[in-house]
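[Discussion] Sanity-checking designs against the backbone

I'm trying to build intuition for which residues belong where. Below is a structure token string of 99 positions. I'd appreciate it if someone posts a full sequence so I can compare it with mine line by line.
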């Protein structure tokens, strides 16, 4: 019985970890880049700032921030969702309520 509980607990933790990783992905079409702040702006207005461990994928291949161009469809892993306020970028946290 104990073995079953441990197995189910481990499975639940792994499932949550995978779900969290998927939530960290930002997908969209690039309209603008702020090279000084290392921020990518998507066509829907979302903004994502690169962190040291951020990975940018174009056509499922990793690329550097410097090679991303407007119009490219990208997936950003481990980037920080930000918005522009008072002349600078501020990290935003996802809301628990639906939009």
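Best answer:
Here's mine. Compare freely.
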């Amino acid at each position: 019985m104990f073995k079953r509980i441990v197995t189910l607990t481990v499975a639940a933790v792994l499932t949550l970890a995978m779900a969290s990783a998927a939530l960290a992905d930002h997908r969209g079409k690039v309209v603008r880049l702020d090279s000084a702040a290392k921020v990518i702006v998507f066509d829907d207005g979302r903004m994502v700032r690169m962190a040291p461990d951020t990975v940018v994928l174009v056509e499922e291949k990793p690329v550097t921030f410097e090679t991303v161009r407007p119009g490219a469809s990208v997936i950003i892993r481990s980037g920080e969702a930000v918005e522009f306020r008072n002349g600078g970028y501020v990290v935003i946290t996802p809301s628990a309520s639906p939009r």
